[in-house]
Write a structure and sequence with these properties.
Number of strands of chain B: 2
Strand order of the largest sheet of chain B: 1-2
Oligomer: heterodimer
Number of helices of chain A: 22
Radius of gyration of chain B: 21 Å
Distance between the termini of chain A: 46 Å
Strand content of chain B: under 5%
Helix content of chain B: 55-70%
Largest sheet of chain A: 10 strands, mixed
Shape of chain B: globular
Shape of chain A: elongated
Order of helices and strands of chain B: HHHHHHHEEHHHH
Largest interface: A-B, 73 and 81 residues
Chain lengths: 838, 281
Amino acid sequence: MKRTAALVAVLALLGVTGWLVWPSEPEVRGQAQHITVYDGPADDQRVDLDVTYFPPQGGGKAPVVLLAHGFGGNKRSVRAEAVHLVREGYAVLTWSARGFGGSTGEIALNSPDYEVKDVKQLIDWLAKRPEVLLDAAGDPRVGIAGASYGGAIALLTAAHDPRVDAIVPQITWSDLSDALFPDAAGGGPEDGVFKRMWAGIFFGQGGATQSLEALTREPRPMTAEQARCGRFLPEICEIYQQVAQTGEATPEAVELLRASSPVHVAGRIKAPTLLIQGQRDSLFPLDHADQNARAIAAAGTPVSVTWYDGGHDGGDGEADWLREQTLAWFDRHLKGEDAAVPGAFTITRDGGRDPGTRQRIRLHPEADDYPGLGGTDVTTVTLNGPEQHVVNPPGGSPAAVSTVPGVSGLLGGQGAPSVSIDMPGQSAFFESEPLTAPLQLTGSPSVRVRVYGEGEVTLFAKLFDVPDALQPPTLPAGLVAPFRVTIPEGADSAEATVTLPAVDHRFDTGHRLRLVVSTTDMAYATPAQPAAYRIALAAPALSVPTVASLAAPPSGIAWWVWAMPLAAVVAAAVLLATGRTGARRASGPPAGDAPPLEISGLTKAYRNGELAVDDLSFRVERGQVLGLLGPNGAGKTTTMRMMLGLIQPDAGEIRVFGEPVTPGAPVLSRLGAFVEGPGFLPHLSGRDNLELYWAATGRPAADAHFEEALEIAGLGKALERAVRTYSQGMRQRLAIAQAMLGLPDLLVLDEPANGLDPPQIREMREVLKRYARDGRTVIVSSHLLAEVEQTCTDVVVMHRGKLVTTGPVSVLLSSAAAANGHGTRLEDVFLDLIGENV
Amino acid sequence: MTAAPGYAPSRTLPLRVEIVRQFKRRRTLVMFGLLLALPWILVIAFQFGPQPSGDGPGLRMADLATESGLNFAAFALSVSASFLLVVAVALFCGDTVAGEASWSSLRYLLAAPVPRDRLLRQKLIVALGYSAAAVICLPLMALLAGTLAFGWDDIQVPGTGETIPAVDVLPRFAIVIGYALVSQLVVAALAFLISTVTDSPLGAVGGAVGLWIVCTILQAVEALGVLREFLPTFWNTAWFDALMPELDWSGMAKGASISITYAALLIAVAFRRFRRKDVVS
């Protein structure tokens, strides 16, 4: 026990010391500076870019990663990512894009004439750094990563600069005009529905600098131009002002936004691309990554697509996992290491909750091929619903709520179902039968609807997951598909194929799919003109794409779950089987007249090695009342405990009626004992105690001879009281009565006279004598020598564990008398024997 | 004639006798009294405590406790499983042998003689029986108290606020109680082992509860990573999964596996030690 404690203490000490002296990671320092670049259509506009350069750690040449920030951010927004990459052995350059942070210039929305040119010159600058690994003179080994605005610059730079070796664009757009003017009926941005809330936030962030600086800085009066356009390039500002008013895309606007769109130049990208898109993103939904991926892959460039739990609308964010994926991508394509990069298509799926930590588990199933939004298979679900009347409210208000840009993420929290509110009278519902099997939708479902009305009709399609009557329907990822249908002159209706938002969602067995087509959505600009339409399904079939190859790795039960208990049960069985105390069988069959007790060579050492009983041998014959004598510490009680099988002797043997005594040996049933004080259940009465004790022996109640035993105890009415109320003497008598239950052939009593008053002692003496007279045997230990003299026929005298003498009391006394020449008492004999009668 | 007439080792210390011996003890009655009273105390606390103000009821288990009897029972189990039930189980299993040793009655049972393996087996069965009764009676009484106080309604899932029909959740509730039983097996085995080693019943109960607390503390050390999964306390709350809309067995399977593993080993060690032990109490 002490050794274990010492071991634990030493281990704890080692752990603490190790933790204290473990080298902490060196601090990563960046060098802040300004780099002057020239851009604009004629390369004549001077811009000072505020950059921080992090040289690689540990010397030597290293690949470099450019980290671009998102819209409204600056170079400090990506510092944590930069530090992480520097620790992994990269040089990193972070910069504030023109129009943001400490950089001069105006926001040109990642235009090839402005921002792209800036980044190309940053690469030129990096090529001159001595620590940066070069592929060729002026061509550094460079990767670009960034999210949203920063992701687009990664794509656009890679398209315009062949020196870029790998990119990881996150949650970014393929076509900015599609993002701001989507049309799920395939009409193109010219005809798209204005995503007015997102557009407002997007342009608003460029206008008012939203940084800590802005809050702490002395407010300065803005010029009229500054107040109107902030840090936007005036022509961009102009165009935004126009479309935001009308809610309709002008050709100039579409042209301007397309110029900043990677999808049109993505074919030129030669750098391996890891596209990370958010599943909770109503600004740049998953189809943007899809378009980029297809455009890049068409040119034969390696591309992987990942849908993670995050995006502009919130979600978990999975920061650590994204870091790992990004690092693996750069390790593979910049360092040429054999890193485990994400497969062609990876999705984050809910894996339930970890039962230990109660945290959400995310699974990341992969597919070897990117299937696109059409899936590898298509399941057709039949929707039902009549033609329904809907109205567009005047002014477009009140509007349905699906996602509130920039707020949903804050409100919804992690994994919470999206809040979705539809206004009465504005929506048509089409519902499927309850599913008979679970359906994992991965991609964009599509459906054909027919719209009755006139002119241009703006509608919003949503696909709900309807569990049952009790739980509210959920709108996966809170996404809606806005679309426009133009009903030709003279016709009363038109059909449209609506591509619903791309999501990864599992519809469980028993759930229904519900298509809702409504006239309003708060996040979009809708016509102010009141109008009434009728909406029907053109075909009842809803095409639901699925990707079978994405099935998450079977999260079957870990092997140890069944192996460990089995192994433990086997180990337990082995422990029990090997730990069996070998029942030492008698060397020969016990003779019919075997003595009640025969002790030979009995030895028992205390834990400290001192011998409690030392080579003790004696024999007790039938009909004897044997007195076991000895001063305190002589080993009497230890011997008695060994007789009962409570203590295992170190050597020697005890036989009771010829049977060797082992723990629980059946022969002990012929032995009644009272050793070292009574042992009763204090909460039970004396009678209950005796009865339960006898019941515990499992012997027939008739054999107990309760009345005789109780007579000896002589407790009278006290027998019905709880034992805890008894005096010492009462307990003593009850215990002796218990020892006599069943009238055992051998009765062993340890100091029976303790606590008894003289009349009771006298009575006890008679009882014992009478008991032995019937052919039974009694062994009594006592220190009251006069008692023993009067009661016992024989004595065994022990001292310091050894047998001093044994024999009939009469012989002992007479031999002593012969030696002394006068009569003697047992007391004198005893003191002589143990050598203390000086 | 090697044994007294009518003596058979397999008839010693019948379960009925051991049950009676333990039942009349004050600590048994007090513990059951407490377990049966606790739900009513909670009901009173919820009835008379100040109502949560502010932005309406949350979705924590405590906020949902008054929604229905089932919710209340789940809440009562969640607040008691981590400590009260542990103490109850440790008490019944830790006291069983050490208690006899402290009363000195152990030596008379062994000299009766009740074979040592049989004594342990019978005592273990009865102690586990009392522990199981304790673990079962609390949620059942909570279900009764909660239903009387808050009505019989569908259960609302903490965290998400989804509802599961009461009829569907009743069998799940059986799973919850079953899992709670299995997960307390470690405490029972640990207390039982200590009980066979020491003569002090308090030491056995305290030792088991103490080690349990140490495990709970270690579990909070995230640096231990996956090692924590093998702490006996780690899967203690896995029964929440049985009340989720989607019944998830994986956590409970792991928890049961760990629990059974520890329990089998600890009980085997207890038997092995006790066979060779010198009984000096």
